[in-house]
Backbone:
C-alpha cells in the first residue's frame, strides 16, 4: 500500500494503539481523534457522545477507522454503564459516518468496529457472517453500532464492519486480566469450561484491519477471530501449559455472577464464531492456534 493518510478513532485503546504503531512503522500518516482540543496537525477534535467531529481534520484521509467505545468489562453493567457502552459506540460511529459523508472528497474506506457480541450466545453451533444477530443487550448494541455507519455507505464509501473476538494481548481486554492470574497460579476454567471463546491474537487483529483497509473489493461484515475457536476449558489448559503454571482453580458460575452481575452472562456464554469471509478474502493468520497466540502476547 502506498503512503496513506488514515484517521483512527479509539487510537489510545488496546487495538487502536497497536494499529497506529503498525501504520506509523510503515510510513503512513496517522490522524488521531481526541476528546479535547487538537494540539498538533495529527490530531482531530471530536466528542463521540455529543456527536461532534471537526470534519475539516478528516480532509485528505484515504481511510477512517472507528474503534472507539467504552470497555465492556471495565465496570459492572448498571443501567447507566450499559447506556455508556451503547452510546459511545452508536453515537460516535454515527458522528464519524456523517462527517465522512459530508466531505467533498470522502475517504475510499470507512472501517467501523463491531464485535462478535453481534451473534449472542451460540452454544456449540458454529456461526459466520451469514448468521443473523442474536438476542440480548450486546447483540442489540452491535446491530445499532453497524447501522450507525449508514451515512458513509449511502455516500458511496466502501464500508467494512470488523466484528472482533477476544483479543489475546497483555495490555488490555479479557487477556489483560487473565495473564496475571495464570502467572500467579490462580487461573482455571470459568463455570463448566464448555463455553466457546472465539479468540484472535493482537498481531492478527491488526493485520486483519490493515487487510480490510487495503483490499478494495471488501465491504460488509468480517469476523476477526482465529479459524478454530476453543472452549474456555481448553484455553485455560493452554494458558497453564504456556505459562508453566497450574490451571486447576475453576471459578464457579455463581461466584462469577455475584462478582460481575449481568456481565457474567458474557463470560459464561458460548460464541463459536468462524472468520469465513476473512479466509475467503485470502487473509492468512500468523498465530491461528491458541498456544502461539499466548506466546506472542506474553
Residues:
Amino acid at each position: 500500500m502506498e503512503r496513506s493518510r488514515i484517521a483512527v478513532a479509539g487510537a489510545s485503546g488496546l487495538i487502536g494503539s497497536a494499529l497506529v504503531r503498525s501504520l506509523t512503522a510503515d510510513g503512513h500518516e496517522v490522524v488521531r481523534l481526541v476528546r479535547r482540543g487538537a494540539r498538533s496537525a495529527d490530531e482531530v477534535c471530536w466528542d463521540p457522545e455529543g456527536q461532534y467531529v471537526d470534519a475539516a481534520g478528516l480532509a485528505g484521509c484515504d481511510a477512517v477507522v472507528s474503534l472507539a467505545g467504552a470497555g465492556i468489562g471495565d465496570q459492572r453493567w448498571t443501567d447507566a454503564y450499559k447506556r455508556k457502552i451503547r452510546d459511545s459506540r452508536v453515537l460516535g460511529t454515527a458522528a464519524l459516518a456523517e462527517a465522512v459523508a459530508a466531505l467533498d472528497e470522502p475517504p475510499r474506506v470507512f472501517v467501523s468496529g463491531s464485535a462478535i457480541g453481534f451473534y449472542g450466545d451460540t452454544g456449540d453451533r458454529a456461526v459466520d457472517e451469514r448468521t443473523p444477530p442474536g438476542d440480548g443487550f450486546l447483540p442489540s448494541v452491535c446491530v445499532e453500532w453497524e447501522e450507525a455507519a449508514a451515512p458513509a455507505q449511502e455516500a458511496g464509501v466502501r464500508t467494512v464492519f470488523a466484528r472482533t473476538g477476544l483479543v489475546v494481548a497483555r495490555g488490555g481486554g479479557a487477556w489483560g486480566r487473565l495473564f496475571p492470574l495464570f502467572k500467579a497460579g490462580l487461573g482455571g476454567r470459568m463455570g463448566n469450561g464448555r463455553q466457546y471463546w472465539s479468540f484472535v491474537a493482537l498481531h492478527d487483529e491488526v493485520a486483519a484491519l490493515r487487510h480490510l483497509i487495503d483490499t478494495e473489493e471488501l465491504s460488509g461484515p468480517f469476523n476477526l477471530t482465529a479459524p478454530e475457536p476453543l472452549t474456555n476449558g481448553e484455553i485455560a489448559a493452554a494458558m497453564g501449559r504456556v505459562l508453566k503454571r497450574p490451571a486447576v482453580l475453576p471459578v464457579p458460575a455463581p461466584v462469577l455472577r455475584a462478582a460481575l452481575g449481568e456481565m457474567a452472562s458474557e463470560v459464561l456464554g458460548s460464541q463459536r464464531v468462524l472468520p469465513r469471509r476473512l479466509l475467503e478474502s485470502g487473509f492468512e493468520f500468523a498465530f491461528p492456534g491458541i498456544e502461539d497466540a499466548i506466546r506472542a502476547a506474553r
Notes: The chain has one domain: 5-297. The radius of gyration is 19 Å. The chain has eleven helices and 14 strands. The CA atoms of residues 188 and 279 lie 31 Å apart.
